[in-house]
Amino acid sequence: MRIVFAAAGAFALEPFRRLHALGSDLAMVITRPDRPRGRGRRVGATPIAEEAQRVGFPVAKVAKIAALSDTLKYLQVDLLLVADFGEMIPESVLAIPRIGPFNLHASLLPRWRGAAPCPRTILAGDAASGVTLFRMTKGMDAGPILSQREAPVLADDTSETLEARLSREAAALLSEALPRLEAGDIALREQDAGSVTFAPKLAKQDGAVPWRLDAAAVLRHVRAMQPWPRAYAFLRSPGRPPLRVNVIEAAAVDAPAAPPGTILAVREDCFDVACAAGAVRVRRLQAAGKRVMTCAEFLRGNRVAAGDIMTSGDEEPSPPLEA
Fold it and tell me: Which CATH topology does 206-311 take?
């Protein structure tokens, strides 16, 4: 069975390693072009390109997979396997593989169709997630399902840790599914259209901390925004310009009612910020242009006092709550 694997992001790493370890007839790996990444905006390869290079497997880097249509036909591809690729595959390409085009997705479809299933899973407070292998159609993540595996969402999961665990589940699911696909055992079930939810791609501004929600929701936001775009807020103190900080680690604490975003208490190693209900205790953070540090390290170099305000953007601080 000649397989072409089209992938780019970290979720696809364990499936790629499994394909490589199984000695599958992996005819080709396709990924996205190098692009600027990270704080320094240095041009870098996709995680799949880096892993393929590490194991000595060549990759084709293309902005549009349709550019390789003739190559895919020449290879007489049996199975096109897609995972975290970042492009809607045109129908002309979907029609090429003999067995069909299949996608590994980091959710239990039809929940969380789209580019950011892990952050949306955590934001929603879902207790479980999983992976889905489905036959691709022209609709986004809308094709019929071949198989799924469920996995728990842990209380301290970030998008990064959840994605890594789901990547391992996807590799296990792939190991089970490949013999079925090769044997023609392709029993599919349609997705329940009434249960569809969407997981649109995150933007930088999505990281703004929603202090007007309760503490549990704020903590989910902090975890969901890691590793990108990070949960951020602006520290506003009298007589000083606003300082942007990324909240990296926090915990929920009980607190009296106060305007959301108000700093309630400052200790040697943390400070508490009011939410709509309860408060969050900030333990690790990252000031603009600086490394991630403990709150104790941050407080040694920055003056923070009870009554200071953390806002989500350029808006004015919230007015006091009515008695």
Answer: Methionyl-tRNA Fmet Formyltransferase; Chain A, domain 2 (3.10.25)
Query: Which residues, other chains included, contact 183 with Cβ-Cβ below 8 Å and sequence gap of 6+?
Result: none
pLDDT tens-digit series, residues 80-100: 999 999 999 999 999 999 999
Which pTM value belongs to this model? 0.94
Distance CA 39, CA 28 (A): 32
Tokens 């040697």 belong to: 268
Q: CA-CA distance, 233 to 271, in Å (whole number)?
A: 14
| Tokens matching residue 117 | 């299933």
